[in-house]
Amino acid sequence: YRIRYAPHPHAGRGWCIYPSYDWTHGICDSLEHIDYSICTLEFESRREPYYWILWALELYRPNVYEMSRLNLEATVLSKRRLIALVDEKNVRGWDDCR
User: Fold this and answer.
1) By the 8 A CB rule, do 8 and 15 touch?
2) What is the pTM of this model?
3) Category of 74 on φ-ψ map: left (φ > 0), alpha (ψ -120 to 50) or beta
4) Distance between CA 76 and CA 6 in Å, rounded?
């Protein structure tokens, strides 16, 4: 768990303790009935806690696959760069097909 004494954007000051990614990732995938959880290779070592928490809570276990990062030429995939394009009005919004 992480403890952060700051207001949450949605919950306000009602919470200061947040579960870490290792716990929430598997639980959310299970509750949303995700068939395949596809992650990049840096999460390969996190597969054991992913499955352990689902086993401990007797929840559905999605299939997990790790893959290397996909790099496409002449295509912006970085969230930071996409946000800049939208904020600077270079595109109309997130649904701009360019």
Assistant:
1) yes
2) 0.56
3) left
4) 33
